[in-house]
Specification:
The complex is a heterodimer of chains A (598) and B (183). Chain A is an alpha+beta fold and 598 residues long. Helices cover 40% and strands 16% of the residues of chain A. In chain A, helix 9 packs antiparallel against helix 21 and helix 11 (370-392) runs antiparallel to helix 16. With 183 residues, chain B is mainly alpha-helical. Classes of the chains: A alpha+beta (598), B mainly alpha (183).
Chain lengths: 598, 183
């Protein structure tokens, strides 16, 4: 990318003192700078017309224990004009793991910096509210540090039973009666709703405000989201999302598995769109290993992810409608979703967690009858979408609950690192399938629906998601003839570094048998380096940052989760609105808690 | 275990045994059966989802699998109105106190189904964040395997629970620990 070079040369010119290194790996630019210049460079990259990196896509860290400086702090910035990303790296010593906070320049840095603090113990000076975000407050240590144990629990045998039981986090509970365990002082403490845990926007105002706890057990928070609400009568003064109730530690577990065995972990993050998680991770590792993917595999990948997009958007529309009272839509949405799940089951045997994409292609070819099933699916969807529109578009209750609710402005969307349908609803033409095509998306003809204004409400998001489903149908329809044309072609790469030898070779060649065995037991060893690959998931930019240290297990896998960034909008959108609007706004943001908490 | 008939000569409380032998025993046995039948026929699950399994749980009460065939389509969002908790998904250490509190708030008699591998034993996530089985904090009656289990598998688990309830200990015995499979 020539423009990136002009930016980096400009950076070198202006900040020659502070730029330590500019490196290129697999087409990704990493600029290493000294900590003191971080704010200046971030401001330059955002505001300079030649750079114009408007969106802070991600912040994460790498721990190179026992090397010093120990931590790499990685900032990923995204430029719409240049269609490019730049990664800014700041190295921090373990004795002084502190960096200036970017929240003054990119408000969206808020959650990311809290996450890095929570998982790595790196502090950010100037952050408005630097507390743990994913783990309980009382946790000891920072789990993603390399010297922190995985917390693995051994299998129970009779000779280890007592030892393992005594190490359980909550003691051995079930044998005691309920009343004893529930009381204060036991191992299980009630979660705190104390006001000092939350930064209140108003203190000593005219009227007294009230603290309301919403979730983590609430039917309309789409999972285990907890929102601490400060209300003045029916009006929301402040809404503070409290997340981490589904924190799974996937990123830590992945460091203890080979590249292939880590794959099924990621299906279960964003459980409404598991195939996108597969695809993004597989693309990242393919980039790292420089693997080619056969055309047929790419076509099937596109078809399945688009079917998944439809299934996911159906739930987004259906659950929003259900939360504001239109239960029928949800029932219909699940009926259509079953048809999508049937196709997943057909190709992989699993309804939801397919783990069907592999490095260099697919696990196996699509079965007989796949095209017919897909053809029936895309013939069924458009008339069914019409049914939804008949139910909703002129429904006075639906309109009253969504029209004009939650004014999302373009400035807010950019400031809070929002991607996906929310960003496009404010008129920003940014869809990775068009702007940074992967898996052969450049060969398909489709439109990216955009919001007409620079602000969006819940109703706009509903319309946009409906249109995106129609466009997905269009893409799948174009993929079908391509699938016929590539019939009989391989679906996995010939690159034996990542793909096993074909079955028939195993029976005749000893070398192939050994190779096969080594590949499944040890895996492969990618070169050292950091890569990032992103796909356009139904919720926005879903990216996987994979760092390799040359061994057969990843040094770090970081998931750039779209829901995590998008959730930061909740306080912005709900402020000043009615209490009952919150459920509609959560539905509009369309979070999946597995994706938020990881 | 079939409901036991009480023989008239065993009744020693209060008035002397009635003239007609067998009548009181018959009444008691039938009531027992009747109550259990009512419990299994109108179980109200808690509307409570954690992760991926919750989506399959939702699919279960949607038209295709149609849980209302078993009188259970009324999901209650308040634990005080529910008598079955389906732990659908992985339980993190941050979530564990919440799960326990919800369980404590449910009125007796109550039952728990651990849906999926994560709720049963931690599943593929054996690390610092996830509880290795929800039975560490609440007593579980039925475990359903799968990642996630198919809706049919969950229905099978519910029917297994119904069977257990119909064959459970006599009424009047306060159930605290559940039917727990583990010890």
């Amino acid at each position: 990318m020539p423009q990136i070079e002009t930016v980096s040369s400009k950076l070198r010119e202006r900040f020659s003192q502070v730029i330590q290194d500019v490196s290129e790996f697999r087409g990704e630019t990493t600029v290493t700078i000294s900590r003191d210049a971080l704010l200046d460079i971030a401001r330059f990259l955002r505001d300079d017309p030649s750079a114009h990196f408007q969106l802070l896509a991600d912040i994460t860290a790498l721990d190179w224990f026992p090397r010093e400086p120990r931590f790499d702090l990685l900032y990923t910035l995204l430029s719409f004009d240049q269609r490019a990303r730049v990664r800014v790296r700041v190295q921090l010593a373990s004795a002084d793991a502190n960096a200036p906070s970017l929240t003054g320049i990119f408000p969206g840095a808020n959650f990311y910096e809290r996450e890095v603090y929570d998982l790595y113990g790196i502090t950010f000076s100037g952050h408005p509210f630097l507390h743990r975000i994913l783990l309980p407050d009382a946790t000891a240590g920072h789990p993603l540090r390399k010297d922190h144990p995985l917390g693995y629990e051994q299998v129970e045998f009779t000779h280890t039973f007592a030892e393992i039981q005594s190490a359980k986090p909550f003691g051995v509970a079930p044998r005691k009666p309920a009343q004893v365990i529930g009381s204060a002082g036991g191992a299980l403490q009630e979660i705190s709703v104390a006001a000092e845990h939350y930064p209140w926007s108003s203190d000593g105002g005219e009227t007294e405000t009230m603290l309301i706890n919403m979730g983590p057990h609430h039917p309309s928070t789409h999972g285990v989201l907890r929102v601490a609400l400060e209300v003045d009568g029916e009006k929301v003064v402040n809404a503070m999302p409290d997340i981490g109730y589904l924190h799974t530690g996937v990123e830590k577990t992945a460091e203890y598995k080979t590249y292939l065995k880590a794959l099924p972990l990621f299906d279960r993050l964003d459980y409404l769109s598991p195939l996108f998680n597969n695809l993004a991770y597989v693309l990242a590792v393919e980039k790292l290993m420089e693997v080619d993917v056969p055309e047929r595999a790419q076509i099937i990948r596109v078809m399945l992810t688009e079917i998944n997009r439809i299934a996911s958007h159906l739930i987004a529309v259906g659950s929003t409608a259900m939360d504001v009272g239109a239960v029928t839509v949800m029932t219909y949405a699940f009926r259509e979703r079953e048809a999508a799940l049937d196709i997943f089951e057909m190709v992989s045997g699993a309804r939801m967690m397919t783990s069907y994409f592999r490095f260099g292609g697919l696990a196996l070819d699509a079965p007989l009858g796949f095209s017919d099933a897909v053809r029936a699916f895309i013939a069924m969807i458009p008339p069914r979408l019409k049914e939804y529109e008949d139910l909703l578009n002129k429904n006075p209750i639906w309109i009253a609950r969504t029209r004009g609710v939650a004014e999302l402005t373009r400035a807010d969307a950019l400031a809070y690192s929002v991607t996906g349908p929310l960003l496009r609803a404010t008129g920003v033409d940014w869809d990775l399938r068009k702007r940074a095509p992967y898996s052969g998306y450049e060969q398909y003809e489709f439109d990216v629906p955009l919001g007409a204004r620079d602000r969006a409400d819940v109703f706009d998001l509903y319309l946009l998601r409906m249109e995106e489903m129609r466009q997905s149908v269009r893409i799948i329809a174009q993929a079908l003839p391509k699938l016929e044309k590539t019939k009989g072609q391989p679906v996995v790469t010939r690159n034996r570094k990542v793909a096993p030898p074909p079955k028939e070779e195993l029976q005749s060649s000893m070398e192939s048998l050994i190779h096969h065995f080594k590949l499944w037991t040890e895996g492969f060893k990618p070169p050292r380096g950091v890569v990032y690959a992103a796909v356009e998931s139904p919720r926005g930019e879903l990216g996987y940052l994979v760092s390799s240290n040359g061994t057969n297990m990843p040094h770090r896998v970081h998931v750039r989760a779209p829901s995590f960034a998008n959730l930061q909008l909740l306080p912005v959108l709900t402020r000043g609105r009615y209490l009952s609007d919150i459920v509609a706004i959560i539905g509009m943001i369309d979070i999946v808690l597995g994706d938020v908490d990881r | 275990m079939k409901p036991q008939m009480i023989k008239p000569e065993e009744i020693s409380v209060g008035a002397p045994a009635p003239e007609k032998p067998g009548t009181p025993g018959m009444v008691f046995a039938k009531l027992d059966e009747l109550v259990r039948w009512a419990r299994t026929g109108s179980m109200w699950p808690l509307l409570f989802g954690l992760a991926c399994c919750a989506i399959e749980m939702m699919a279960m009460y949607m038209p295709r699998f149609d849980l209302s065939r078993f009188g259970m389509e009324v999901y209650r969002a308040s634990p005080r109105q529910a008598d079955l908790m389906i732990v659908a998904g992985r339980v993190s250490r941050k979530m564990a106190p919440v799960v326990r509190q919800l369980f404590d708030q449910m009125p007796e008699p109550k039952w728990v189904i651990a849906m999926g591998d994560c709720a049963a034993c931690g599943g593929i996530y054996n690390n610092y964040a996830i509880l290795q089985g929800v039975d560490e904090i609440i007593p579980v009656d039925v475990y359903v395997a799968g990642c996630p289990p198919r809706p049919e598998a969950l229905i099978d688990g519910i029917l297994a629970l119904h069977k257990r309830i119909k064959n459970a200990e006599p009424l009047g015995q306060i159930k605290i620990e559940g039917l727990g499979l583990r010890g």
